[in-house]
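Please decode residue identities from the backbone states below.
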């Protein structure tokens, strides 16, 4: 089931600021499990799952996973109809050559990203690093045809593909962080079979790739007693040190560091051990670069933990994860929520007034 949900989510598009194209699909998924679902002004999708339908629980816990994806914007249509563009979010120019893209204009326009062929590149050019300015999109249209359909500022996304590899690995665009959103559905499915005493607020957050904006405003509005952020961390791959990466198939990574509430992180580890869920430790000495960074300092401070799914080739069109890690992330967080009220009761001196 989770694999099917993840596939469905990765085929949708939702650049930062344009998550409205995702809200109907995510709202429908949340509605199967949540007592209330709403969409706020920044297109955060917020689903409330009460512990008791008749009364508000003593504690409410926010689970956040961002839905936006790296993308591009049209900056120019030249006299031959070629489209120039700028990145939205962190895009490595090296991944752009030969990509298929969709320009979201008055209608969807398909194009390919081209660049000068190697036969025509000078020796001097070969020594230079490529930049976004070196690339253009070819739609096959003339300047006038393109300008009749495409406007400056239109959004551009990578054409979606879905590949199932061996050993329950899957590859697609926007697994960062549609995998986190899918894991929230897995959590809601798991929690149906587990009694919990905290109200759970799942938030598919917007605009993480350009500044954690959806997390900041939703955390401020919800004002939770604690927060769990689910995102991706760098998976093991050639060319990276072991200290920088986490092994696919070996379980989610539990973060520790100043961005993380230490007692809750320790409790996550205890839960993983009790439930025989494999996990890894993610040492984060500074900014985690995730929604946890913004949520932690919302209002007067929110105790926050970060659980990450190992992901290879981040911010590319072939991001790769293990479905086993996805399922174990859902299991870990669901069991963490099961008795979290007792843990929060014991931490009242740390909680906000």
């Amino acid at each position: 089931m989770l694999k099917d949900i993840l596939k469905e989510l990765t085929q949708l598009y939702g650049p930062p600021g344009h998550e409205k194209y995702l809200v109907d699909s995510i709202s429908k998924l949340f509605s199967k499990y949540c007592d209330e679902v709403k969409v706020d002004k920044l297109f955060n999708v917020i689903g409330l799952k009460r512990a008791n339908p008749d009364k508000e629980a003593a504690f409410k816990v926010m689970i956040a996973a961002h839905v936006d994806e790296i993308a591009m914007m049209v900056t120019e249509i030249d006299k031959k109809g070629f489209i120039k563009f700028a990145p939205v979010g962190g895009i490595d120019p090296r991944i752009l050559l030969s990509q298929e893209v969709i320009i979201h204009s008055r209608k969807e326009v398909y194009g390919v990203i081209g660049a000068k062929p190697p036969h025509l590149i000078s020796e001097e050019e070969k020594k230079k690093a490529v930049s976004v300015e070196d690339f253009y999109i070819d739609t096959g249209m003339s300047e006038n045809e393109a300008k009749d359909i495409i406007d400056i500022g239109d959004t551009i996304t990578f054409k979606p593909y879905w590949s199932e590899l061996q050993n329950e690995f899957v590859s697609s665009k926007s697994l960062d962080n549609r995998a986190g959103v899918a894991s929230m559905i897995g959590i809601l499915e798991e929690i149906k079979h587990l009694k919990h005493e905290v109200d759970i607020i799942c938030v598919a957050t917007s605009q993480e790739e350009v500044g954690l904006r959806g997390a900041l405003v939703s955390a401020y509005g919800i004002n939770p007693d604690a927060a769990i952020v689910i995102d991706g961390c760098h998976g093991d791959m050639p060319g990276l040190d072991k200290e920088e990466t986490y092994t696919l198939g070996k379980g989610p990574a539990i973060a520790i560091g100043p961005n993380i509430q230490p007692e809750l992180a320790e409790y996550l580890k205890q839960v993983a051990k009790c439930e025989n869920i494999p996990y890894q430790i993610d040492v984060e000495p500074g900014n985690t670069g995730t929604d946890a960074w913004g949520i932690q300092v919302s209002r007067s401070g929110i105790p926050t933990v970060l659980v990450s799914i190992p992901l290879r080739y981040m911010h590319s069109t072939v991001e790769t994860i293990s479905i086993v890690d996805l399922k174990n992330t859902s299991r870990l967080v669901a069991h963490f929520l099961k008795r979290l009220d007792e843990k929060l009761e014991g931490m009242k001196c740390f909680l906000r007034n």
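Observation: The two ends are 40 Å apart (CA to CA).
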